[in-house]
Amino acid sequence: MFRLSQVVFLGHVIVVDQSAHDNGPARTFTEHDNCVSSIQFNRSKDGLELFSAGTDAQLRSWDLITGTSSNVIFLNDCFTDEGASAQEVEDSAACCVAVAQQPNVLTPPMAHSISINQSCSLLACGLENSALLLFDINNAPGQSSSKLKTSGLLSGHTAGVCQVNFPVIWQKAGIYEELIISGGSDKRIISWKSQL
């Protein structure tokens, strides 16, 4: 069983094995180019996969067994002009979403916060450019790592999205509605219906 210990400013993610007696680092990941601002374990992979995002505008997934970065998305590549051809969109490494223009074109899409929904099928990423990007998580059985595909863009904030979360809102008869809650530097909290 792995337990996250700390995120270090220089782009290091240190994971500690809580079953070890000395609680020494089990893995140290150093591939981020700048500060790591948010991390989440993928519960569908028995906690053996970790997602991280940072001010280097990268979203990464890590295989905790092999210690490798199994998936990297450069968040700058997630935006394309509305007039882009289908082939240009398909050729993008992150399967970008078409938008009329990047939400805040002067601000890079540095990641502040990521969150995974209860069913581990959707990851939300709050960005400095005021966008909230959604990624489908493909948790195929037998694969050690998940595949991420951009599935949508939520626009509503006018400044950086500092926090994102998937709270579970219980309703009658044990049925729940999954929401996305985001908070931003624009002093707004927005509730979104999850697009599943």
What attributes does this structure have?
single chain; globular; 196 residues; mainly beta; Methylamine Dehydrogenase, Chain H; 1 helix; four-stranded antiparallel β-sheet; 17 strands
The percent of residues in helical segments reads under 10%
CATH class (first level) name: Mainly Beta
Low-pLDDT stretches: 83-96
Largest sheet: 4 strands, antiparallel
Give the end-to-end Cα distance, rounded to a whole number of Å.
Answer: 30 Å
Radius of gyration, Cα only, in angstroms?
Answer: 17 Å
Strand order of the largest sheet: 4-5-6-7
- Kindly name the structural category: mainly beta
The helix tally amounts to 1
Number of domains: 1
Overall pLDDT: 76
Number of strands: 17
Q: Tell me the fraction of residues in β-strands, as a range.
A: over 45%
Architecture (CATH level 2) name: 7 Propeller
- The arrangement of helices and strands along the chain is EEEEEEEEHEEEEEEEEE
CATH superfamily: YVTN repeat-like/Quinoprotein amine dehydrogenase
- Morphology call: globular
| CATH topology name | Methylamine Dehydrogenase, Chain H
Quick structural summary:
3% of the residues lie in helices and 51% in strands. The chain is mainly β and 196 residues long.
Question: What is the topological layout?
Answer:
Layout lengths: L1 E7 L3 E6 L7 E5 L6 E6 L7 E6 L3 E6 L4 E7 L4 E3 L4 H6 L5 E3 L11 E6 L5 E6 L3 E8 L8 E9 L5 E5 L2 E3 L5 E9 L4 E5 L3
Parallel strand pairs: 8-9
Antiparallel strand pairs: 1-2, 2-3, 4-5, 5-6, 6-7, 10-11, 11-12, 12-13, 14-16, 15-16, 16-17
